[in-house]
């Protein structure tokens, strides 16, 4: 059973990565001409995940006192469920954005504020979904320190990206985005 769960987890991570790549390529081709584009924050997110992964790997080897002492299957099941839930929520958000989605922060010709689907409740639901998936992925380390480092680094990258994206959207969409931002939380419904 453990072997099956492990391979379901691995296949789920690979399927999510493949879906991201396919969606980003398709949206890049379909999207309108960008008036404003910012690439650095994409690199920051990738770097934060790589660094988080490296730090988590070191912590699992060095901080044995924080090992989670439960059967590994008890971690894989919630890891898979959180990964599916988070990736699904992110993909729903990307689908809802339609032609306005790209892997880089941008404002394009004809860009409008999207207020439907998950954007009714959050300004950045795709990042909320990604972070939920990261919380699940982090469970495979079976170590509290590793989980905290992996999730913390990913969160730092996403928070930086949100700050950059908010600035670009405020500058590019003006009062329409300011009104939306005044009535909709960034990442956590009812909190922030």
From TrEMBL:
InterPro entries: ICMT_MeTrfase, Metal_cation-efflux_comp
Location(s) in or outside the cell: Membrane
Cellular component GO terms held in the UniProt record: membrane
Keyword ATP-binding: no
Record membrane topology: Multi-pass membrane protein
Chief location: membrane
Residues annotated as transmembrane: 39-57, 69-92, 127-160
Keywords in alphabetical order: Membrane, Transmembrane, Transmembrane helix
Pfam families reported in the protein's UniProt record: ICMT
PANTHER family for this protein: BLL3993 PROTEIN
Entry protein name: Isoprenylcysteine carboxyl methyltransferase
């Amino acid at each position: 059973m453990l072997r099956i769960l492990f391979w379901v987890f691995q296949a789920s991570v690979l399927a999510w990565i493949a879906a991201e790549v396919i969606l980003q390529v398709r949206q890049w081709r379909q999207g309108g001409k960008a008036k404003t584009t910012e690439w650095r924050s994409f690199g920051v997110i990738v770097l934060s995940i790589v660094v988080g992964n490296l730090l988590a790997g070191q912590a699992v080897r060095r901080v044995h006192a924080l090992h989670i002492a439960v059967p590994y299957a008890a971690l894989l099941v919630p890891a898979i469920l959180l990964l599916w839930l988070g990736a699904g929520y992110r993909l729903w958000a990307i689908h809802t954005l339609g032609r306005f989605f790209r892997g880089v922060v941008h404002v394009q010709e004809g860009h409008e504020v999207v207020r439907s689907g998950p954007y009714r409740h959050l300004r950045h639901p795709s990042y909320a979904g990604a972070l939920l998936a990261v919380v699940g992925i982090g469970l495979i380390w079976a170590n509290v320190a590793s989980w905290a480092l992996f999730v913390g680094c990913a969160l730092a990258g996403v928070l930086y990206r949100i700050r950059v994206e908010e600035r670009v959207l405020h500058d590019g969409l003006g009062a329409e985005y300011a009104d939306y931002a005044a009535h909709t939380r960034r990442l956590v419904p009812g909190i922030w």
